[in-house]
Specification:
The structure holds three protein chains of three kinds. By secondary structure, chain A is an alpha+beta fold. Chain A is built from twelve helices and 14 strands. Chain B has three domains: 22-30 and 484-627, Aldehyde Oxidoreductase, domain 4, CATH 3.30.365; 33-135 and 202-250 and 257-290, Aldehyde oxidase/xanthine dehydrogenase, a/b hammerhead (Aldehyde Oxidoreductase, domain 3, Alpha-Beta Complex); 294-469 and 631-788, Aldehyde oxidase/xanthine dehydrogenase, molybdopterin binding domain (Aldehyde Oxidoreductase, domain 4, 2-Layer Sandwich). Classes of the chains: A alpha+beta, B alpha+beta, C alpha+beta.
Chain lengths: 291, 796, 176
C-alpha cells in the first residue's frame, strides 16, 4: 500500500521525457495510466528510482483513422475512450470487442492501450488484440522514431523491446485490405480478473475467402502467443465448419498453458479451442445472414 | 377520546424506517478507525513471514532502527521480555504475537515498526534482516494426521502430533442400529473450502496510553469491545477500569473483527512504551493471510434411509483444519461450533457426530463468518447430503424434503444431537418457495432443454439456523456467559438515549433499536439516540456476531423499556390521581380504565420523573437490563436457485434465485431484506468464486483481491425475496429471531445443488466449492467428482 | 487555503524531496507539499482530512477510494498526489451543497443502498460519473458501470435501485 521512494518528473514534451529517461538510466520508468505499475509499486514488486510522467504531454490522447484506413492510438488514449469509440465500433470489431473487457470501468478510465502493450503481461488483453491485427508500436527515442511490429515488441514476460530512453507513443493497426471481422473472448472469473484464457481473432475476407487471418492467445503461455498454424489454416479458405474446427484445434495446440488455481492446462487449451470456434462461428453466421 | 399512536408513523415495529446512520455515511462523514487522527500519532506496520514453516535463526533490525523517522522496532524477543510474545486465544490455546522460535504460517507476524508515517514504517520493515531455516510444510489435515508429519506446535508441552481435539456428540450405537435397518445408505464426502469474511475495511487500532492518567484508550475495529477490554486486562495485565475500548464505525465485520489480533497487542505495547498514540491499519494482504479465516472443514456423512424416503438416522465425521493456532471464536463448550445443529429441521430419530481438529501451517481463525459458529458447514453438508440422498432414492428433491421436515405440530422438537427447536412452519415456507420459482414448470423446461443439449438445473436448500447464543448455561466464551445488555435514559422532555452491549457493523442498530423503544414506550424512534461501542459508556455485552444482536441485545432493549414503563405507570397513577391498578397502557399513553380520555403521555410521565414525582419515589426515568435468553432462536429459510450450465466452458449462470425467510417478527422489513440480500451474495460468492487455497509450499493463494475473488455487481444475480411466513419466536419478548446470516448459511447449497442437478446423469456426485468453470467442465468431461483440497494443482 | 502535509518527522536525516502540488479539490484551490510517492488517496484522507474517501485494498480492486479527476471516476489509490497537479478533484464531500444532498445521496438512503457505509462514497462517485455519461441507464448499464467497486454488505441489488432512483430524480430536475 506504500510505495518505495522515487523521484518524479512531469515531462512537458516527448523530447524532455526522453532526456529524463536517458539521464535516469535503467531505473527510470515511464508513467502513463499507471494502472499496472502503481499497484506493483504499492506491493513493492516494483521500485523504480525515477518516474517520468507523460500525462501532461499534449497531443497523445488521440485515436483516429488515417485516410488509408489504418488506426492510430496515442500513448494517452485511455481504455474507456476505446470502449466508447464509435470509430472502433464501426470499423474495428476485434478492438471494439476487447475494450470493454479490460480490467474494470474505473481502471479503464485511466489505463492506456499503449501502456498495456509496454507492460508485456502475458495475461494482458491488448497484446493479443494488436498481435492478431498485425499492429505495430511507434517508439520515440533520442534519435527520432522507429516502428516495431507487435510480434517483435514483446521479448518475454514483462519485457519489451524499448530501449531505456525510448517511449512508446503510438500503436498502429494497419488498414484492412478486405472486410474486417473478428472478436475477442476472455474467460474471467470476475470483472477485473486476469484472463484464465483469452482469444483474439481478426480476419479479413474478400467475401468468400479469408484473405488474412490473425489469431493470438492471452494468458496461456509465458507471453502472448500468435497461433500461426491456425492462421495459415484459414488463409485462402472459406469459413466453414471444417476450417473453423481446424483453426480451433491448431490454436489449442499452439497454447502453452500451465495448470494453476485458474484451471488445468487441459482446460485452458480447451477454452482456447472453444473460443476460436465461437468467434469464427459467429463471423460465419453473420456472413451467411448477409448472403 | 383516546387516540392510540400509529406505530408505523412513529417508526415502531414493522416500519421500514430509513436508516439514521446513513445521514453521515452518504456524506462521507462516517468515523472509521483509520479516519481518526490524534495529535502526535505514530504509525505501525507489521513485517510478516514469507514462508509457511521455518525456524528463525537470526533477526537483525539494526538497519531499520537507523532509518530517520523510525521510533521503535518490536520483535518477538522484545515481546518475550514483557511476557507478551504469546497470547491466549478464544479457544483455550495460545497464539504467537510476534514469532520467537519459528514461524508456523505464511504471513505470520514477525516484527513491527513504529514510525512517523506508514510509508517510513514500511521502508523500515523491508530493512529488517531475518534468516529462516525451512521446515517441512503441512497444508491440509490429512497430511497433518500422518504419523510422520512434522509437529507444528512444538512450543506446547504434551503436544504429540498435530491433533487438537477429538469430540463427539449423539448416540453412536443407536445410530449404528439405524443404519443396519436402512433400505438405502447414502454417503457424501466434501470439503468446505477455506474462506475469509473479508470486510472491505481491514482491521486496525489506535492505542493511546496516557501516562499521566494511566488510562489506555484503544480505538479499534472490533465487533465485541467488552471482550477485548477483558482480554487486554488479562494479557497486558492492566487494570480493567483503566482500559477504554472504543469501536467507532466499522466497515463490515462478518466475524472477522471478533478475535484479538497480534497487531492490536503490538500497537498497545508500542503506545505504552512510546507514550504516544500508535495507529496500526492492516493492509488487505495482511487481513487475508493472517486474520480469522472461516470454514476449511472436510465433511463425511451418511444417511440411513427407508425406501419411501424417511430418514432413519444420520452420522457425520468432520475433520477441521484450524491452522497453526486453535483460535476459533466460538462457545467454549463446543469444539466445532454448532456443527451438531445439522439436520435440525428434519425429523431424524437418531444421529452421531464425531469431530477432529488438527493444526496445519496455515493462518489461525475459524471465525463465525456470517454464521452462528460452524453452522454454515453444518447446513451446507445437510443440504448437499439431502440432494444426494434424494437422487439415490430416485425421489423428487421437494418431495424428499416434504417427507422429512419437522411438522408444525411437532414443536417443540428435540433433535438427536441436543437442540430444542421451538417454532416454525417449514412446510409452508417450502411450498411458497416452490410456487414462487415455478417448480413444476421449471422441471418440464429442464427436460425440454436437455433434448437440445442445454443443461438446466434447480437446487433447493431448506434449513433452520440456531441463532442468538446463549443461554448462559450452555454458551460462554472462556467462561464469560453469552448474555447481552441494554441501558436507557429517558430525558425530561421524553427524548431518550439507548445504549447496548452489542456493536453493529452495518446492520442498522441505530435505526432498529430505536424502533424497539418506539414499540415498547411509544416514544417516536426519531426521539431516540442509540449508542454502542464505547466500553466506558455502554453496558457490558458480548458484542455483535452470530446473528445474536436482535435475539439477545434486542430482547434486552425490550426488557429495559418494560422496566421503564413500569416506573412510568407509577408516575402516571400519581399524575392522574388514581391507583396503579386502574391504569391502562396503549402505545405512548397511560389512561384511566374507567375514563379513557383521562390520560398522560409517556413524555408527560418523563417530565414528572424529574419535576413532579410522588413522595418517596426515586427521581429519574432510566434503567438497564441484562438478558439471558432461554433458548436460541430458530429462523427457517428456503432458498431455491435455477441455473444454466454451459457444457463447453463449465460457466454457469443463475437464472433465478428465490428466498423465503421466516425470521419471526420483522422489526424493520427494509433492513431485514437488506441483510438477506447481503447473505445471498456471500452464498453466491462462496459457491462460485471466493476461496483461499494453498500450494504445497504453504503459499497462500487468495492473499489479495486479485486472487481472493469477491463478486461485483456484474456477476451477482438478482434476488426475489419472500417474507410472507411469520412464526414469532415463542420466548423472545417481541417475537423476533435472528436473520443476518441465514442466507449466507443456507444459500451456498442451493447454488451448488442447482449446478449438480444440471449435471444429473453424469454420475458426478460432488464438485467442491467454489464451482469454478474449470471444475465444472472437468466434472462434465471426465465424469468424476472434483476435489478442491489443497495443495492446489500446478505443473511445477 | 494552504495545507501543510507533515510527511516525515525525520531529525538530522537526509532531506526527503518534497514537491509542491496545486489541486482544485471540491472547488477549492489547495496547495500541498508532498513526497512524490504519496498516493492521492492518502493526501485527501490524511493531508486534507477528507476521510470520506476510503482505502480498502492494495491492488486497485475495491474502488472504495473512487474520486472524480477532471470528471472521470478513478481509483485515487492508483494515482500519485503529484499527478493531480492542476487537476480538478471531486470527493464524496463535494457531492452535496450546504443545503441540499445530491440525488445519489438521497437515493442511497431511500433505497437502502448501503449498510456498513465503507464502499458507499466510492460507489456514489462511480455512479456520478456513470450518470454524467448516461442519464437514463438500464439496470444492466448500472451493474456494468459499477463493476469496479466492491460491496460486501448489500448484494448490489439495492445499490442498483439507488442509482435508478437518483437518475430519475436528476432527469426530472433537468426537465423541470
Amino acid at each position: 500500500m506504500y510505495p518505495s521512494r522515487f523521484r518524479y518528473e512531469a515531462a512537458r514534451s516527448l523530447d524532455q521525457a526522453v532526456r529524463l529517461l536517458r539521464d535516469g538510466g535503467d531505473e527510470a520508468k515511464v508513467l502513463a495510466g499507471g494502472q499496472s505499475l502503481i499497484p506493483m509499486m504499492k506491493l513493492r514488486f516494483a521500485s523504480p528510482e525515477l518516474l517520468v510522467d507523460i500525462n501532461n504531454i499534449p497531443g497523445l490522447d488521440y485515436h483516429h483513422a488515417d485516410p488509408d484506413g489504418s488506426i492510430h492510438v496515442g500513448a494517452l488514449c485511455r481504455h474507456a475512450d476505446l470502449e466508447h469509440s464509435g470509430l472502433l465500433q464501426s470499423r474495428q470489431p476485434t478492438m471494439a470487442a476487447a475494450a470493454p473487457l479490460i480490467a474494470d470501468p474505473l481502471v479503464r478510465n485511466r489505463g492506456t492501450l499503449v501502456g498495456s502493450l509496454c507492460h508485456a503481461d502475458p495475461q494482458g488483453d491488448w497484446a493479443s488484440v494488436v498481435l492478431a491485427l498485425g499492429g505495430s508500436i511507434v517508439a520515440h527515442g533520442p534519435d527520432g522514431r522507429r516502428t516495431i511490429p507487435a510480434a517483435d515488441f514483446v521479448l518475454g514476460p514483462f519485457e519489451n523491446a524499448l530501449a531505456h530512453d525510448e517511449i512508446a507513443v503510438e500503436a498502429i493497426i494497419p488498414a484492412p485490405r478486405g472486410a474486417p471481422a473478428g472478436g475477442y473472448l476472455k474467460l474471467e472469473r470476475r470483472v477485473g480478473d486476469f484472463a484464465t484464457a483469452g482469444v483474439a481473432v481478426a480476419i479479413e475476407t474478400d467475401g468468400a475467402m479469408v484473405t488474412r487471418a490473425g489469431i493470438a492467445l492471452t494468458g496461456v503461455g509465458g507471453s502472448t502467443i500468435k497461433a500461426t498454424a491456425a492462421e495459415a489454416a484459414l488463409t485462402g479458405r472459406p469459413l466453414t465448419a471444417e476450417t473453423i474446427a481446424e483453426a480451433g484445434r491448431l490454436a489449442a495446440e499452439a497454447a502453452q498453458p500451465k495448470s494453476d488455481h485458474r484451471g488445468s492446462a487441459t482446460y485452458k487449451r480447451h477454452i482456447v479451442r472453444t473460443f476460436v470456434v465461437r468467434i469464427l462461428g459467429r463471423i460465419e453466421g453473420t456472413q451467411e445472414r448477409a448472403a | 377520546m383516546t387516540q392510540a399512536l400509529d406505530e408505523i408513523k412513529i417508526g415502531g415495529m414493522g416500519a421500514s424506517r430509513k436508516r439514521v446512520e446513513d445521514n453521515r455515511f452518504i456524506r462521507g462523514k462516517g468515523n472509521y478507525t483509520d479516519d481518526i487522527h490524534l495529535p502526535g500519532m505514530l504509525h505501525m506496520e507489521i513485517l510478516r513471514s514469507p514462508v509457511a514453516h521455518a525456524r528463525i535463526t537470526r533477526i537483525d533490525a539494526s538497519k531499520a532502527w537507523e532509518i530517520p523517522g523510525v521510533h521503535l522496532v518490536l520483535t518477538g524477543e522484545m515481546m518475550a521480555t514483557r511476557n507478551l510474545a504469546w497470547m491466549p486465544t478464544l479457544s483455550y490455546d495460545t497464539q504467537a504475537v510476534l514469532a520467537t522460535d519459528k514461524v508456523r504460517f505464511q504471513g505470520q507476524e514477525v516484527a513491527c515498526v513504529i514510525a512517523d508515517d506508514p510509508y517510513i514504517a514500511k521502508d523500515a520493515c523491508e530493512a529488517i534482516e531475518i534468516d529462516y531455516e525451512p521446515l517441512p510444510v503441512v497444508v491440509n489435515p490429512m497430511q497433518a494426521g500422518e504419523p510422520d508429519a512434522p509437529i507444528i506446535r512444538d512450543d506446547k508441552e504434551n503436544q504429540a502430533g498435530n491433533v487438537i481435539y477429538d469430540w463427539e456428540v449423539g448416540d453412536a450405537e443407536g445410530t449404528d442400529r439405524a443404519f443396519e435397518q436402512a433400505d438405502v445408505v447414502s454417503r457424501l464426502q466434501l470439503h468446505y473450502p477455506r474462506s475469509h469474511p473479508s470486510p472491505i475495511e481491514c482491521c486496525g487500532s489506535i492505542a493511546d496510553f496516557n501516562r499521566s492518567t494511566s488510562k489506555l484508550t484503544v480505538y479499534m475495529t472490533t465487533q465485541a469491545p467488552h471482550i477485548i477490554r477483558a482480554a487486554v486486562a488479562l494479557v497486558a495485565e492492566l487494570p480493567e477500569h483503566m482500559i477504554r475500548i472504543i469501536s467507532p464505525d466499522i466497515g463490515g465485520g462478518f466475524g472477522n473483527k471478533v478475535p484479538v489480533y497480534p497487531g492490536y497487542v503490538c500497537s498497545i505495547l508500542a503506545s505504552i512504551l512510546l507514550e504516544r498514540p500508535v495507529k496500526w491499519i492492516e493492509d488487505k494482504t495482511g487481513n487475508l493471510i493472517s486474520t480469522g479465516f472461516a470454514r476449511d472443514v472436510y465433511l463425511d456423512g451418511e444417511l440411513a434411509l427407508r425406501r419411501d424416503g424417511k430418514i432413519l438416522g444420520m452420522r457425520m465425521r468432520t475433520l477441521a483444519d484450524h491452522g497453526a493456532f486453535f483460535s476459533d471464536a466460538q462457545p467454549s463448550k463446543f469444539k466445532i461450533g454448532l456443527m451438531h445443529s445439522t439436520f435440525g429441521c428434519y425429523d431424524v430419530p437418531v444421529a452421531h457426530l464425531a469431530a477432529r481438529g488438527l493444526y496445519t501451517n496455515k493462518a489461525p481463525g475459524g471465525v463465525a463468518y456470517r454464521c452462528s459458529f460452524r453452522v454454515t458447514e453444518a447446513m451446507f453438508f445437510q443440504e448437499r447430503m439431502m440432494h444426494a440422498a434424494a437422487n439415490d432414492l430416485g425421489m423428487d428433491q421437494a418431495e424428499f424434503r416434504r417427507i422429512n421436515l419437522v411438522r408444525d405440530d411437532q414443536f417443540p422438537h428435540r433433535t438427536p444431537l441436543g437442540f430444542l427447536l421451538d417454532s416454525g412452519q417449514y412446510g409452508a415456507c417450502l411450498e411458497l418457495g416452490l410456487k414462487a420459482v415455478g417448480y413444476e414448470d421449471f422441471l418440464r423446461q429442464k427436460e425440454e432443454a436437455r433434448k437440445n443439449g442445454r443443461l438446466l438445473g434447480i437446487g433447493i436448500s431448506t434449513m433452520s439456523e440456531p441463532l442468538g447464543a446463549g443461554n448462559s448455561r450452555e454458551y460462554d466464551i472462556l467462561g464469560i456467559k453469552m448474555f447481552d445488555s441494554a441501558e436507557i435514559r429517558v430525558h425530561m422532555t421524553g427524548k431518550a438515549l439507548l445504549r447496548t452491549g452489542a456493536r453493529g457493523q452495518g446492520q442498522g442498530h441505530e435505526t432498529t433499536w430505536a424502533q424497539i423503544v418506539a414499540h415498547e414506550l411509544g416514544i417516536p424512534a426519531d426521539d431516540v439516540t442509540v449508542e454502542e461501542g464505547d466500553t466506558d459508556t455502554a453496558p457490558f455485552g458480548m458484542g455483535t456476531y452470530a446473528s445474536r444482536s436482535t435475539p439477545v441485545a434486542g430482547a434486552a432493549i425490550a426488557m429495559v423499556c418494560r422496566k421503564v414503563r413500569a416506573k412510568a405507570r407509577k408516575l402516571a397513577a400519581h399524575l392522574l390521581e388514581v391507583s396503579e391498578e386502574d391504569i391502562e397502557w396503549e402505545l405512548g399513553r397511560f389512561y384511566v380504565r374507567s375514563a379513557p380520555d383521562r390520560g398522560v403521555t409517556i413524555q408527560e410521565c418523563a417530565m414528572a420523573a424529574y419535576s413532579n414525582m410522588p413522595d418517596g419515589m426515586e427521581p429519574g426515568l432510566e434503567n438497564n437490563a441484562y438478558y439471558d435468553p432461554p433458548n436460541l432462536t430458530w429462523p427457517f429459510a428456503c432458498y431455491i436457485v435455477t441455473v444454466e450450465v454451459d457444457p463447453e466452458t463449465g460457466v454457469w449462470d443463475v437464472l433465478n434465485m428465490v428466498a423465503v425467510d421466516d425470521c419471526g417478527v420483522r422489526i424493520n422489513p427494509m433492513i431485514v431484506e437488506g441483510q438477506i440480500m447481503g447473505g445471498l451474495t456471500e452464498a453466491f460468492a462462496m459457491s462460485s468464486m471466493q476461496f483461499i487455497t494453498f500450494d504445497s509450499e504453504g503459499n497462500c493463494i487468495g492473499s489479495n483481491y486479485m486472487d481472493y475473488l469477491i463478486p461485483t455487481s456484474w456477476e451477482t444475480p438478482g434476488f426475489e425475496l419472500h417474507g410472507e411466513v411469520v412464526t414469532p419466536c415463542p420466548h423472545h419478548p417481541i417475537g423476533a429471531k435472528g436473520v443476518g446470516e441465514c442466507a449466507a448459511v443456507g444459500g451456498p447449497a442451493a447454488f451448488v445443488n442447482a449446478v449438480m442437478d444440471a449435471l444429473a446423469g453424469t454420475g458426478v456426485r460432488n464438485i467442491d466449492m467454489p464451482l469454478l468453470p474449470d471444475r465444472v467442465w472437468e466434472a462434465i468431461t471426465e465424469r468424476h467428482d472434483v476435489s478442491g483440497a489443497p495443495p492446489v494443482r500446478s505443473d511445477g | 487555503m494552504t495545507i501543510i502535509y507533515e510527511e516525515t518527522g525525520a531529525e538530522g536525516g537526509p532531506e526527503i524531496p518534497q514537491q509542491r502540488v496545486t489541486i482544485r479539490v471540491n472547488g477549492r484551490k489547495v496547495i500541498a507539499e508532498v513526497e512524490p510517492r504519496l498516493l492521492l488517496a492518502h493526501l485527501l484522507r490524511h493531508g486534507m482530512g477528507l476521510t470520506g474517501t476510503h482505502t480498502g485494498c492494495d491492488t486497485t480492486n475495491c474502488g472504495a477510494c473512487t474520486v472524480l479527476v477532471d470528471g472521470r471516476a478513478v481509483k485515487s489509490c492508483t494515482m500519485f498526489a503529484v499527478q493531480a497537479e492542476g487537476r480538478e478533484v471531486t470527493t464524496v464531500e463535494g457531492l452535496a451543497t450546504q443545503s441540499e444532498l445530491h440525488p445519489l445521496q438521497e437515493g442511497f438512503k431511500e433505497e437502502h443502498g448501503l449498510q456498513c457505509g465503507f464502499c458507499t462514497p466510492g460507489m456514489m462517485m462511480a455512479a456520478k460519473a456513470l450518470l454524467d455519461r448516461n442519464p437514463d441507464p438500464t439496470e444492466e448499464d448500472i451493474r456494468w458501470g459499477l463493476s469496479g467497486n466492491l460491496c460486501r454488505c448489500t448484494g448490489y441489488q439495492n445499490i442498483v435501485k439507488s442509482v435508478l432512483w437518483a437518475a430519475e430524480k436528476l432527469r426530472s430536475q433537468s426537465a423541470g
